[in-house]
Structures
1.
Amino acid sequence: MEQFDVVGLGNAIVDILAYTEESFLDTHALPKGGMTLIDAPRAAELYKAMGAATECSGGSAANTLAGIASLGGKAAFIGKVAQDQMGKIFRHDMNATGVHFTTPPLLGTVSTAQCLVMVTQDGKTKSTERTMATYLGACKHISPIDIDAALIEASKVTYLEGYLWDEQPAKRAIEKAIKVAHGAKKKVAFTLSDAFCVERHRAEFWDMINTKQIDILFSNEREACALGETPDLNIAITKLQGTCDIIVITRSEKGAIILTKDDAVTLPAAPVDQVFDVTGAGDLYAAGFLYGYTHNMPIEKCGMLGSYAASEVIKYLGARPMSKLAPLVSKLSA
Amino acid sequence: MEQFDVVGLGNAIVDILAYTEESFLDTHALPKGGMTLIDAPRAAELYKAMGAATECSGGSAANTLAGIASLGGKAAFIGKVAQDQMGKIFRHDMNATGVHFTTPPLLGTVSTAQCLVMVTQDGKTKSTERTMATYLGACKHISPIDIDAALIEASKVTYLEGYLWDEQPAKRAIEKAIKVAHGAKKKVAFTLSDAFCVERHRAEFWDMINTKQIDILFSNEREACALGETPDLNIAITKLQGTCDIIVITRSEKGAIILTKDDAVTLPAAPVDQVFDVTGAGDLYAAGFLYGYTHNMPIEKCGMLGSYAASEVIKYLGARPMSKLAPLVSKLSA
């Protein structure tokens, strides 16, 4: 079988992005900066209330895989779409970016997952924040049968998103993926996804970490603190260090901290002229890092490439880069 | 009935935008900067070959109506979508922008129209150009029965797009709309849409102009020259002046020329920091101009507002503004 750098397992989602006022989030009881799961009727109601939008393929792990492929890496994705127009868009965008994606679509009337992304802008700093409401639709139906063992065995890293913990069949799919990956002596990477997601599944996440099921953990500051049950990042770091081989904690414009078994590397963020929309920054950081990791770069270079990739996607509205990221790899070597 | 500033009749299209190399246009025999009509199999083939894309509601007249509503005007739209996800997106975006849009959807298996927009960037100047391939789908089925006479009678201006000439039932719908509008002593505005469109329908367009069916004509430099069958804009102007009450000729960064019966007003373009994507510039110019016209502004102010609105939309990828345009009206009065 063809060999891959990274295979990712995640929710296959089309993002529907619109600018909105902060008051809209209050009216609809959506915690700012977080991801709320919604059912079909609420999705319809919220969409009706939202402003004119732009659609683009999303999904956290899917964005990461698209980023890896854009950097020139060999990437594959496992995820569930429906047989509708949104599903076709998602599949097209993955394939067009060069991501191997062959999970069969869900038959029936359930639609492809949609994430309503409300982008708010701070009047003073002009910085934006995204608040998400996700209708999982077809994603709820991913199950162990969708886990292509040969694909996972052919990939250096299997990348999993925390968001998948919200559904039971998806959890069983993940368990299978981890077992296959580790059985083939491959690495497992995991992203905590969202502080609210950590709140929902903290005990299970710690259990996975403590039983050595995760080799590389991706987290942002808020998620690390949520996992450590502390507002103090240093305390969270103390609790986390040594649990996984590599723990990446991204800190937006403050850069990132990378914890290995017995070291902590602090890296600055790549300079950015203009932040247009931070959607996808964490996903693309993981893309850059994993591209570096699977190409045997030293940890500092992995982090720098992560930062470059993240800084690229925040220039645009949407969670995927609009141009090939491969030049970033050359920039790193220069 | 509620009164409207402008009712527009046009193709109801969802745009699928992707960056591409110029060589892609050659490979697929698409004339750069133009709009090519394609059938369903060719649309599928071209989409497969295109890169990862972003979707947003489009359609020339629809963009103009969305712009008028965004400026604070009362806008209505008549157009045909299918009962699919793309159709729902189009309807949502029109309603969310405040445009009255109640044309019933087409039933059956034909899908909502899609415009594949290939954005090419000049390596030196960084300026972008859009090349379009349109699958008309449900739009082909608009017909006189969709023309709500009461809505047209309730609107100061009925705005029509030249692109509609590509289908016979749509032409009959336009004839009805013009008859109703003029019967109610309202104005008819028309956009030439595209130089290739003018080539296809030159004789009919001249016939409409010469029989006084058009009061306000929108055109860009290339379209005016195509209509005048000359590469010299001055010759085209000589042929056009005096035919319609108002003729607007937009010239991108060179501004615009507005011809009235016995005057020619030359206006500069609004200054723009950065041109990201020119898609929709002409549509939004018409929006600003018609907002001004229906609010009894002098012709120079109509042109300036057109230029402001156009300069706003070219900052983003896509053909509709991402923020409310109403502040531009205040800027004009300041």
2.
Amino acid sequence: MKKVKIPEATIARLSVYSRFLNRMEKNGVDTVSSGEIAKGTASNSAQVRKDFAYFGGFGKRGVGYDVIDLNRNIKEILGLNKEWRAIIVGMGNLGKALAYYHGFSTRGFKIMGLFDNDPQKIGEKIDTLTVQDDQVMEKFLDNNEIDIMILTLPAEYTQAVVDRVEGKGIKGILNFAPTVIHASEGTQIRNVDLAVHLEVMSYNLTHSINKEQE
Amino acid sequence: MKKVKIPEATIARLSVYSRFLNRMEKNGVDTVSSGEIAKGTASNSAQVRKDFAYFGGFGKRGVGYDVIDLNRNIKEILGLNKEWRAIIVGMGNLGKALAYYHGFSTRGFKIMGLFDNDPQKIGEKIDTLTVQDDQVMEKFLDNNEIDIMILTLPAEYTQAVVDRVEGKGIKGILNFAPTVIHASEGTQIRNVDLAVHLEVMSYNLTHSINKEQE
């Protein structure tokens, strides 16, 4: 594949398209058009085709895209043809919401452990897992190959946890705390800031930009 | 201002920059460089300057940007110089997490009401608000000017709630359910799909893209 820099927004949309294609697969649909994909994902068909063009267009035929083929291709691009193993640190409401969220496991992200330092929370059963004392986290990481750490901690505790797991094989950190964290080079950090979504909405409302019409 | 199409990623970053500038203001910092903004927001200084260039560059002087001026400008662009009033519908773990999240109110998003249809949850006190029966939601919207509805409902209930509030003045809907919803034209819909963040991370890890080095 050519070394073209692919916009992150395209990757994010591929993820959304793939979820839509999963539903189509489940419903036994064989082929879809870019218009159908757009309609099912609040995108538009020109955008869908443009996103696909980065990867050679995925061999559309007269009748549309082959649902199974297209989804397999997209999942492979996204790196979802393997299982990613994750832990969640911080079992507040957000941590619990993520632990209960089945949208992760169905996409190949397996939550392997839940951690907190609150004695009230340690031992609590959440879905199929039990919240563990965060003091055993390093040992857990030594004994289990974990790729991704999801941090749903108060901002002031976040960096300390990142420092503690240095060298334990964590490849990516998804940080929900409104703070910038630093990890060793080679560890991918993604900060999820929920207020951003409201502020982009505020911008669009203020400037009368209708997202769906773009 | 020229009618240049500004990338949504730029708007999202402005939101993050502004949060950083808030902290600088609080700490009594007068001026910042693009490098400092980049470091504090996991961006890079070329990106910061490129984002600012869409708005004329914000009058950087030799010493850097004036923190207060810059933040006021960005907030005005984002439409944060007014109060946005929101309700949250669905008081599961995610709804609760958002209701307790003070990052919204400090940015001018005031949560005015919480709703659920579960008798176990109705009447529960969450922060300063009490969960209301979702049957009174329409009446609440008649009596209160609400701009934004945040939906943290199971996917299958989401569209029905959107249909019920049609014509009640809701300008924007932030939907956390993994389903595409439809509202009347002019209502801004943003779908927040938490799995997307993991899948973009999976893509970056698979293709050895280090986000912070970009």
